[in-house]
Amino acid sequence: MSDDLALARKIMLERGASLVVVRDGDILFIGRSGGLKDLAKIALGEPSLLEGSSIADRVVGKAAALIFSMNRAKAVYASLISSYGLEELQKSRIRVSYERLVPYIEAPGGGICPFEKLVLGFGDPREAYRRLLEKFEEVFGRL
Fold first, then answer.
1. CA distance 5 to 79
2. What is the pLDDT of residues 68-112, one digit of tens each?
3. Is 95 helix (H, G, I), strand (E, B) or coil?
């Protein structure tokens, strides 16, 4: 595990964060909102924050992995990752480590997470990313 990824993981665990972004030893973002709200905030407002960064995230499904890959993250640590998220990160040659692998990310009420389900329907990652950003704006508004 790289120094930046180890730092991101450490900060996430010590501070009870849900998302931590680190680049070159600098902590760029600490999020605590859970779900995809913090990641939506970054993707909609400052996606360049992810470029070349190491990210620790509590839950990584295909939607989160797509955001990381489209914005050229360097490495990802996940407490929980879906097989779809893992496949996306590996396909994009992003270093990944995780604690637990599950078939898919489950929605709070059961079934597959609606964001993961949304991006599974696209063959073109750019189109999936565009649609995901539209859905973020629809669900979260301008953060």
1. 13
2. 999 999 999 999 999 999 999 999 999 999 999 999 999 988 899
3. strand
φ and ψ at residue 129, rounded to 5 degrees = -65, -45
Q: Please give the C-alpha separations between residue 57 and each of 1, 61, 93, 109, 123, in angstroms, as whole numbers.
A: 15, 10, 18, 21, 25
Helix (H) or strand (E) holding 7: helix 3-15
pLDDT at residue 21, rounded to an integer: 98
Q: Whole-model pTM? A: 0.94
> What are the b/e assignments for 6-37, b being 16+ CB within 10 Å?
bbbbebbeeeebbbbbbbeeeebbbbeeebbb
